[in-house]
Amino acid sequence: MERAYTVCTYGSTMGVEATYWGKPSMLLSRSIYDKLNVSFNARGLADIRSFLEAPKVHPVEGALMYGAFYSSFGVPFKYYKARDLMNGEILGIVLDALPVRLYRTLRDFSLWKPFRY
C-alpha cells in the first residue's frame, strides 16, 4: 500500500486502512464498512473508470470509527465471548476446540444468522 497510487479492494479491511493512511480507496463489493464514507463504492465499470481517472481521498473519521469499534471487539454478544480476534466461546464452550460438524450445526441454528445487507 505504501507504493500504491490508489487501493482497490473487494471487501478487505485494506480499504479502510488505505483511507486511514491517506490513500484513495475504491471498494468493488459490499463490505461491513461500505456506509462509513471511507471508500468510493463502485457499482459498475463506468464507476471504476471514473474513479481511476480522478481518485479521491476520503476523510479519515470513518476509518477511525471502524478501528475504535473493532478494537473493543465491537458490540458485546449475549452468548458469545471473544477470547481474541479469531477465537472465542459460546455458553462456556470453547469454539476453536469444536469439530467442524458442530460448527455447521451452530451455523444452521436459528440464532446464528450470517451478516446481511
Q: What descriptors fit this protein?
A:
117 residues; three-stranded parallel sheet; three-stranded antiparallel sheet; 4 helices
Secondary structure elements and pairings:
Elements: E1 7-9, H1 14-20, E2 25-27, E3 40-41, H2 45-53, H3 61-71, E4 80-82, E5 88-90, E6 93-94, H4 100-108
Parallel strand pairs: 1-2, 2-3
Antiparallel strand pairs: 4-5, 5-6
Helix pairs in contact: 1-3
Task: Summarize the structure in short.
This protein is an alpha/beta fold. Helix content is 31%, strand content 14%. Strands 1-2-3 form a three-stranded parallel beta sheet, with helices on both faces. The protein has a three-stranded antiparallel beta sheet with strand order 4-5-6, with no helix packed on it.
How is this structure best described in words?
The chain is of the alpha/beta class and 117 residues long. It has two domains: 65 residues, no CATH class; 37 residues, no CATH class. Helices cover 31% and strands 14% of the residues. The strands form two sheets. Strands 1-2-3 form a three-stranded parallel beta sheet, with helices on both faces. It has a three-stranded antiparallel beta sheet with strand order 4-5-6, with no helix packed on it. Strand 5 and strand 6 form a beta hairpin. Helix 1 packs across helix 3. The longest helix has 11 residues. 15% of the residues are buried. The model has no long low-confidence stretch (mean pLDDT 82).
